[in-house]
Each structure stands twice: as C-alpha cells, then as structure tokens.
Design goal:
Length: 142
C-alpha cells in the first residue's frame, strides 16, 4: 500500500470527481506525516490509524469521510454529520481551495492530538508490546 497504489487507482477510476479527489489528496498529503493507501476501494489518508478515506461510489461530490470525526477536537465548520463519523463534501476543485486551511488544521490536530491512536492510554495496547497485548514475536505477554 503506497502512493503508487493510489496513483494507479486515480488513473483507473471512472469517478467523475477524480480531479477533486486529486486536489484534496494534494492538500492532505502536503503534511509529511500523512501516508496514503487504498482502503475501502478508494484512497485513504493515514497517520497512526485512518484519518480519512473517500467514499468510493460518490458521484455528485468527492466525499471525504473521517471515521473518528466526532473525536477530532476543535471547531471545523465544513465537517458534517452526526454520530461517530464526519465528512466533508467537495463538489469542485474551487471548493477544495476554499476549505484548504481547514483541511490542513484537521490534519495538524489529528497528528498532534493525544487521542491519535498510538499515544495516551491506547499506547499500552498498540505500542512496543504490539497489537492487542502481544509482543513483537507474537506471544502473549500476560
């Protein structure tokens, strides 16, 4: 999973909002801490977990979904939705330019926040001991 995989997805997709997806991708990946992959059949942005991914079948908008969006601290007016997830919908490249500063602020909060998956209390489960309480060699340490 890499940038090349996302490049290939963008070349192969028939999504009419591919240009908008590419514009959002350029903004989000301008932060060096963000990596990308194809998840859920569309480009996704990662840093210590999934920050956001595109809805693969959205045709009217490029819908960027934040699966833990309700937990992102701060006031971001473009984030829409209720429940755990939030999303930002972009209809045009111009809309991406309007929301650029907000997208960068969301990325910054995600990357520096205490709850960004591998810091804070969860570090015990995800840190040096490995996932779900296993050691690096796969044996349970408890």
């Amino acid at each position: 999973m890499s940038r090349a995989e996302v490049d290939a997805w963008l070349r192969a997709t028939d999504n009419p909002k591919a240009d908008v997806i590419a514009a959002v991708r350029a903004v989000v990946t301008s932060d060096a801490r963000i990596t990308e992959a194809v998840k859920y059949r569309a480009p996704a942005f990662l840093h210590r977990g999934i920050l956001a991914y595109f809805h693969w079948n959205a045709r009217e908008f490029a819908s960027l979904i934040f699966p833990s969006g309700a937990s992102i601290p701060g006031d971001f007016p473009h984030l829409q939705g209720t429940g755990r997830q939030r999303m930002i919908r972009f209809a045009t490249v111009a809309a991406v330019k309007v929301a650029r500063a907000e997208l960068l602020a969301i990325v910054e909060v995600w990357c520096t926040s205490r709850w960004s998956r591998r810091s804070g209390p969860r570090a015990i489960l995800w840190g040096a001991r490995g996932r779900c309480g296993t050691t690096a060699h796969g044996l349970r340490s408890r």
